[in-house]
Amino acid sequence: xxxxxxxxxxxxxxxxxxxxxxxxxxxxxxxxxxxxxxxxxxxxxxxxxxxxxxxxxxxxxxxxxxxxxxx
Length: 71
What we know:
Elements: H1 2-24, H2 26-69
Keywords: Membrane, Transmembrane, Transmembrane helix
Protein name: Flp pilus assembly protein, pilin Flp
Organism: Stappia indica
């Protein structure tokens, strides 16, 4: 039973070391920030396209869909 607690403690120590490394690693933080920005921009583009879908009508999206299906 004592061995299981040692394994659990070792896992906790490994996690703490990993968390400390990630906290000090600014390249990883920058990558995460860029990923979040890309996600927000993607949502904005999708929202804009969905909001103008009714204005453009189905003809424009039909042409685009058929163009992609021919590729």
